[in-house]
Amino acid sequence: MTVNFMAKGKGKKSSVSHDNMKVTGVVALLFLAVVVFFLFFSKPKEEPLPKKGLGVHKVFKAPVVKKFKHLPPAAFTSPWASPKFSSGGGGKIAIIIDDWGQSVSNCKYLKEIAEPLEVSILPGLRHTKDVARCAVLYNKTTMLHLPLEALYNNDFYPPDYIIRTTMTTALVQKILNEDLEQLPSIQGVNNHMGSKATGDETLMRIIFKELKKKRLFFVDSMTARNSVCARLADSMDLAFSKRDVFLDNVNTREAIIKQIMILAQKARHRGYAVAIGHDRHLTMQVLEEQIPWLESQGFEIVSIKDLLKKR
């Protein structure tokens, strides 16, 4: 029994060893196969080269002042960008800067920016006359930024500072002429607010008559869609233009550069465009940086008065 058991057990032990060798061989083959597959088939694929032109239509990114000064803003690598044109070939651009008179801190830009700018000054403020003198000194066109009634306004203004639709003809003439007398150097007028007033033909006719007597032009700031100014100015033969783009309704570098891009697009398409910005440090700084780039692309920065002559 014992011998039989031992003999039987010896035969079983040999069989088990043989099976283990088979398993070991299979495992080794599988391991080798994995190594071969890894070496030959799992090699990292090379990324395809980007197609020409891709990567330029990015979100508008504001340039850093020192790095990008006098270079094209990043936003111009957009679908709106156009090839370089010869001088003047990109269209004419006039730029009005509103709301001057509260401070003279940005007058330095009137010296630093050699190109024409319109300086539109609010009447009756502490520095109204100081800004006018600064603008004349640096050969910038001065304008009256005439306060006109808005549909909605929560800001405080002194009595009879804003010309309203309910005023008599005599009062309208009085306020307008007093405002004009503060700024003897002005060549034109544009409206401050005025979303209600510019839609009132009776009021605007009174104003336009006075402007025509003094040979002043009028620029509609386009604060209302129902403005009657263009039609009325045409019928009265008053020198007239209107705003195409607001530069800084959103007071960030990125937003201002985006608006400059839109301005360039309009000027390129139509041959001219008019922009309005405000007496803010950032607005003036961005203009100083980017006007040279506009000129390098064939745009001509002109005064409103010249634009009216050349159209």
Question: Please, could you describe this protein's structure?
Answer:
The chain has 311 residues and is of the alpha/beta class. It has one domain: Alpha-Beta Barrel (TIM Barrel), CATH 3.20.20. It contains 10 helices and 9 strands. Strands 1, 2, 3, 4, 5, 6, 7, 8 and 9 form a 9-stranded parallel sheet that branches. α5 (169-182) packs across α6 and α8 packs parallel to α9. The N and C termini lie far apart (124 Å). The model is unreliable at 1-16 and 35-86 (pLDDT under 50).
Quick tags:
single chain, 311 residues, TIM Barrel
Q: Flag low-confidence runs.
A: 1-16, 35-86
Q: Characterize the largest beta sheet: strand count, sense, and whether it forms a barrel.
A: 9 strands, parallel
Content of β-strand = 15-25%
What number of domains?
1
Per DSSP E runs of 2 or more residues, the count of β-strands stands at: 9
CATH architecture call: Alpha-Beta Barrel
Quaternary state, please?
single chain
Radius of gyration: 36 Å
In CATH, what is the homologous superfamily? Glycoside hydrolase/deacetylase
Compressed to H and E, one letter per element, the order equals: HHEHEHEHEHEHEEHEHEH
Total of DSSP H or I helical runs spanning 4+ residues = 10
- The best one-word shape is elongated
**End-to-end distance:** 124 Å
User: Helix fraction?
Assistant: 40-55%
CATH topology tier name? TIM Barrel
- Average pLDDT, all residues: 81
* CATH class assignment: Alpha Beta
